[in-house]
Amino acid sequence: MKDLKPTGKLNFYLARMASRGFGAEQVLAGTGLRAESLDDSQSRPHPLQYRKIILNMIELTRDPFLGITLGAEFKISDLGILGYAALSASTLKESRELYDRYRGLNEHIFASTNYIKHGRWFSEIQDVYRLGDVMRFAVEEFVSQTIELAATMTNKPFPILELHVTYPQPPDVSPYIRRFNCPIYFNQARNIVVFDINRLQDPISLANEEVFKLCARHCEMLASKRNSDAQLSDLIRNYLVNNPGEFPTLEEMAGHLNIGSRTLRRRLVSEDLSYQKILDDTRKDLAIQYLQHTALTPKEIGYLLGYSSVSNFRRAFKGWTNHTLSDVRLGAHEPGAPATSLHARL
Asked: HTH araC/xylS-type domain: from which residue to which, for each copy (predicted)?
């Protein structure tokens, strides 16, 4: 078990692009990351870096459906120990529950929520990092990868019943028909995949109770170690980024992290930080990301960052960056595409 370390999304991308003849330096261009520096001790790439990596890959391959392609190439082994745990579960339901519990062991560029409602199984894909124009890639990769992994574990096809996506219908829909083979609704309010609830009881072909227990314990140990090794400031930033619109008080954050408020203050002092500094830095980073990669209005961005008035947000942003909101938005050179209300179904 000790060699089955969690694998990273970036490692998967680099390997798949290498198989296509593209080097790491091409994939990482413009990210500030270097292949020789990518080791276990390095922080994970942040969402903006992943966004640039995805854009690089699409440009290099000239494949607008690269998300579907890479999802189909994803293997259980690419999940590391988490994949082996999922592969030894008794049913797809047990496998999914374990994956949801320890999904933090692997890298993700969005948040997903599984729920059962009215006898149907839904998976909602949420753009918590405001990926903008690469959210389409993320959704298509996720759905294609889910099909591949579920089919591998059960040894039979895994159908998608419906797919609802927030982006417009592309000119060519044949890749969707070949890979997803289900009704697809474009320009929707949310990204939602509808699965067959009866498939949750499908048995895993390589189910092994003892191996499953062993792998699950290993996942728990790795998750605990990762949390204990992480700096408190990183845990706070992760919470803020993954809960858009929520900016708890120090006391509330201490409760979320299951530590006392005095302990939280003391540990932040040891990192030479204050809670307010983390809040301001996170707000600044999110504001820049929203301005450069979304069509959200300043009022909407200010609300997401916890400001009751847009004027207060504008003043705060000027103080953080010495730039106006317009300076940053115009400097992005990536205006958002206009929203449409067209609904399409295959």
From this structure: 234-331
